[in-house]
Amino acid sequence: MPSGIARAVIASVATCLIVQAAPSQTVGGDDLNAPSTALDIPADVTMFGKRDPNVRKATALVNGEVITETDIEQRLALVVLANGGKVSAEETDRLRLQVLRNLIDETLQIQEAAAKDIRVPKAELDENFARVAANFRYSPEGFAKYLSEHGSSERSIKRQIEGEVAWNRLLRREVQPFVNVSEDEVTAIMDRLKASKGKDEFHVGEIYLSATPETTQQVQANGEQIMEQIRKGGSFQAYARQYSEASTAAVGGDLGWVRPAQLPDALASAVQQLEVGQVVGPIPIPGGFSILYLVDKRQVLTADPRDSVLSLKQLAIDFPPGTTPAQAQQKANAFGEALSKLQGCGAVSELAKGLGATVVENDIVARNLPPQLQSVLLAMQVGEATPPFGSATEGVRALILCGRDDPQDAGSPSFDQIMSQMEEDRVNKRARTYLRDLRRDAVIDYN
């Protein structure tokens, strides 16, 4: 099984479907000070004791519909898989509570969709499940077996798919037709984009935790625990799906590309200090706390050098078993000296014969290379070679730049693209209010 499935199975369910979300914590939003969307689950809930997983005992009734302990444990197993199985006992207990909250929300969404005569056919669920399985090179049967072996089930993922698809269709029918964006608003956005050309923008992930004055300390402590788990290797996307109260939770907390001016001041300041791949938080903002993850950064409407397509040749020399670090360094030095005399890509094959090296050719987008190689290669001229790199166990390598196709300047998004994004943003804000109303009206009994 590829390691990616364990870390991405939760996020994959959303990305394999058509579920979309828009930024929730942008300046000017009408939802910053909204009350928490998390249900007020009693602190003394004790239904998570160690019981026979085959016993389907009710732990909550949502408008008469049963959520069993098996449902909770199987969904929890997906979260644990997404975090590589590295979840402490204390963290597991906290995740159980959050999983129950999510299952309650999911049940309310499916019930509301059904009340509006919106149902997801079994054939469509099977098709979407097969798509998720195929993404990770499994047949549906093999994927179902893998999930079962790790404490989850095909049924648990299909239930999650059903909730997301049904809710998305409900929003498209009951909310989206009543959301309007004027041409003047779109034109104003386009003008601001053009005026911002060359300025930094950031691809950001967010986990938003709402708080009231009474719950501030508790929510901050919860945010610090989430940060600790992410630093230990936990999946940001998985924690965003389980804990974030923003509309972007369904897509792993992905805010998309934003500029600092679109964010609250505290978040704008924090994101500009991050390096790609770093996480920061919990950061106090109006209405709660945010944890930010910097996925990438670029300049507005400006070509990114990392999008250049590089034509590369790789020279590789493998070391025999037992090579010491000193011997590896000596061979690397000799390799580097030979590379310094290289006269263009046409001489690579001859050099490889003299060194006993192998040659591999490939075209690759610069951003897909390790960061330390990106900066080196983008500063090189055609025909030049990188310094040798590698290890005593893996051998020594070097890349020779044989060609470079620079990207064109990024064009401004179209009028229709901007209008669509603004409409999605407003739909998602209304969706949060819709779900809060469903929670307030629901009859929920805890076992």
Secondary-structure map:
Layout: H1 3-15, E1 58-62, E2 65-68, H2 69-82, H3 89-115, H4 122-135, H5 140-149, H6 154-174, H7 183-195, E3 200-210, H8 216-231, H9 236-243, E4 254-258, H10 265-271, E5 279-285, E6 288-299, E7 309-317, H11 325-340, H12 348-355, E8 358-365, H13 371-378, E9 389-391, E10 395-405, H14 415-441, E11 444-446
Antiparallel strand pairs: 1-2, 1-11, 3-4, 3-6, 5-6, 7-8, 7-10, 9-10
Helix pairs in contact: 1-2, 2-3, 3-6, 4-5, 4-6, 7-14
Protein name: Parvulin-like PPIase
InterPro entries: OMP_Chaperone_SurA, PPIase_dom_sf, PPIase_PpiC, SurA_N, Trigger_fact/SurA_dom_sf
Signal peptide: 1-21
Structure description:
This protein is of the alpha+beta class and 447 residues long. It folds into 2 domains: 3-301 and 414-446, Chitinase A, domain 3 (Roll), CATH 3.10.50; 305-405, Roll (Chitinase A, domain 3). 45% of the residues lie in helices and 17% in strands. The protein has 14 helices and 11 strands. The chain has helices at residues 3-15, 69-82, 89-115, 122-135, 140-149, 154-174, 183-195, 216-231, 236-243, 265-271, 325-340, 348-355, 371-378, 415-441; strands spanning 58-62, 65-68, 200-210, 254-258, 279-285, 288-299, 309-317, 358-365, 389-391, 395-405, 444-446. The strands form 3 sheets. The protein has a 4-stranded antiparallel sheet. A 4-stranded antiparallel sheet has the order 8-7-10-9, covered by helices on one side. Helix 1 (3-15) crosses helix 2, helix 3 (89-115) packs across helix 6 (154-174) and helix 4 (122-135) packs across helix 5. The chain is globular. It starts with a helix and ends with a strand.
